[in-house]
Write a structure and sequence with these properties.
2 copies of one chain form a homodimer.
Chain A lengths: L3 E4 L5 E6 L5 E8 L13 H9 L8 H10 L3 E6 L4 E8 L3 H13 L5 H19 L2 H13 L13 H6 L2 H11 L5 E7 L3 H11 L19 E5 L6 E8 L8 H12 L5 H9 L3 E11 L2 E10 L4 H18 L2 H18 L3 H15 L5 H9 L3 H12 L5 E5 L8 H5 L5 H5 L2
Parallel strand pairs in A: 2-6, 7-11
Antiparallel strand pairs in A: 1-2, 3-5, 3-6, 4-5, 8-10, 8-11, 9-10
Helix pairs in contact in A: 1-7, 3-8, 9-12, 9-15, 10-11, 11-15, 12-14
Chain lengths: 427, 427
Amino acid sequence: MDIEITRIANGLTVVTDPMPQLESTAVGVWVDCGARNETRAQMGLSHMLEHMAFKGTARRNARQIAEEIEAVGGYLNAYTSREQTAFHARILKADVPLAVDILADILTSPAFEAGELERERQVVLQEIGQARDTPDDIIFDHLQSVAFPDQPMGWPILGDEDSVGSFAREDLKTYMAANYRAGAMTLISSGAVEHARMVELAEEKFANLPRGESSETLPARYEGGDLRLSEPHEQAHVVYGFPGIAGNDPDIYAAQVYVTALGGGMSSRLFQEVREKRGLCYSVYAFANAFRDGGLIGIYAGTGEDEAAGLSAVVAGEMASLAETANADEIARAKAQLKSGLLMGLERPAARAEQIASQLLTYGRVLAVSELTEKLEAVDVSAVRRFGSRLMQAAMPALVALGPVNKLETYSAFANRFGAVGSRAAE
Amino acid sequence: MDIEITRIANGLTVVTDPMPQLESTAVGVWVDCGARNETRAQMGLSHMLEHMAFKGTARRNARQIAEEIEAVGGYLNAYTSREQTAFHARILKADVPLAVDILADILTSPAFEAGELERERQVVLQEIGQARDTPDDIIFDHLQSVAFPDQPMGWPILGDEDSVGSFAREDLKTYMAANYRAGAMTLISSGAVEHARMVELAEEKFANLPRGESSETLPARYEGGDLRLSEPHEQAHVVYGFPGIAGNDPDIYAAQVYVTALGGGMSSRLFQEVREKRGLCYSVYAFANAFRDGGLIGIYAGTGEDEAAGLSAVVAGEMASLAETANADEIARAKAQLKSGLLMGLERPAARAEQIASQLLTYGRVLAVSELTEKLEAVDVSAVRRFGSRLMQAAMPALVALGPVNKLETYSAFANRFGAVGSRAAE
């Protein structure tokens, strides 16, 4: 990897990651602004802005944006997360200048036309409906709000009917002026690209971005608790959450190995115990979400109404057991999976660009693959057990259950499986 | 692309597609057997066999299969479609022999142990529950059964509670003996591979596959009709289907350009009219599924209860309008999208292996990229209009609607927008 980084005069960071053997490029702008930058009234505004960027600029209407990129076989999309909003394109190499021109156009002079806003509001309301119709999607929004209640880190990214219904053109303009500043934005390209040319393009196209850095956000404050919604689903969808760690916490590598060994593949403890041995679930997995100043470790499982009865005990039991008996073989397997995932990701330009964005957000620099693999290699059995033990101390897990969940054990029964050793001994 | 193909002594086809710049490989076995090979009582048996292949062999139990592949950072998975079942791995190049050994082991000497079958039955029932909890997934199973009723082409791939509940060990063994013959199977690898070495591995590991070719299947017989299920979803999920064409029909390229222009991207007619202009949907798109002897052209839309009222008229209107007024610009855009999709797919080993499998199934040979792009290039405005007009003649569209669908226009009102010109004129 021969990554080059230049900060141009207004503060925009330009990163190029050449993959000379390719005929195409992934190019995008990552903005350090997402749901956690919003006040309660602004809930969903980052996402609405992401949508509205495509709805016309001073030079192009929405249809022209779509037609220009697709006329050259390009693909333009965007996503909003809690800490970032990304606008990205996949494009053949000859058309990189066009992609940069369009990205710059939608990010520096969006029209936010009132009629378009009215229509896009309806589209976003449909998007909210679609998410709600997908229990194994919406459950993660609920988890986030249970883990981080009454604070920006817990808002649903899409907002809700009330907030989405309230946004006016001025709100978008004010929010953009406050958050879409050059110092909070990074133009990243992986694939068939040359750094000097990208810097030149950035200087030309993004010249009028306002100066300024990322705006401050409130700290993430984990609380935990539970939410159960008896909805008419076939499955009981259950997610368990525990306070995690920030992306730049040195323990993040141990956390990744831990979740992989717990529920990251077919040989993981949860897959073996919950699916292979007990046949309780089709989907069961663990994950580690990391933010700038915190994180969330979680486990998702989809199971039947009756099968839900024993689920929580098995999940807590596997967590306790991994914290005590994690062994060298399973840790080696988890590390091998994480390393090959890294190496295979390097073969895909879009995955590379996204990883660069994530590292810049987390560390303020791009990590060499060798640095990442060394850090993974350094994780040993005791580090994983230590991390697992720390999770077992959680005073207040987060638990969300949707569907036929009446047989799932109570929150307090589940929470009592965790917490200080003293309180567990006293049960 | 320097693809090499060898048929080894027992009839197994070995295809290698070297990508010398890569450090990893996608390798898998594609079997010409899927849901359409099943009788009604066997509904879901192909998929159950796919699951049970991973549950132990003469040499390895289920846990060993998982542990061996994941110990080297590999990833093993499988899927069942209507005409094929695929077992595939992503693996670093040094471990390709291990992946081939495991694939051969699970495909030539699965144990189908009775206790494992009982547990896996529960897992598949959970998978069915999960699919039913995802309306924009399960709706395509319903579409298939409405389009191709009472015939293997219309079975749900997962089967149902009754069929899955009935499978015994003998059923798996008999079905495998009838369908998993060397002549019906292809070992495909894309990435860091050498053909001579793969042939050698195949000869060593797959030697005891039974000889024989693909088994016959009943012809696909399109009928159409409608199914509405008033379920408590947020959105009305609606899918419209029309008789399509086989993958080896020379019109398949016109069909692909047609669906791309109709609903394949942001600049497509449906996206512009349904989402951008009317704000009715978040998701709306068109697709062309092709089988060996037929196909299905479809449109999916997720919308609100009130918004559903006008949806069918708009969809039919856009189809009629595209058939009459398709223009050179939009056809050029659709072709550019399809071509760049092809070129970008070439950068991903798993996508390449899958495309090779699909071409071998459809054409009995691998097509050069230049041949595909030439065929796409040759599609002109009149070919697209012709294909669109053919769809407008459909006597019996297929229509499935799930959710709050009481305001959607009736099936007969929708069907009357199609059919012979005479009958339309007579309305």
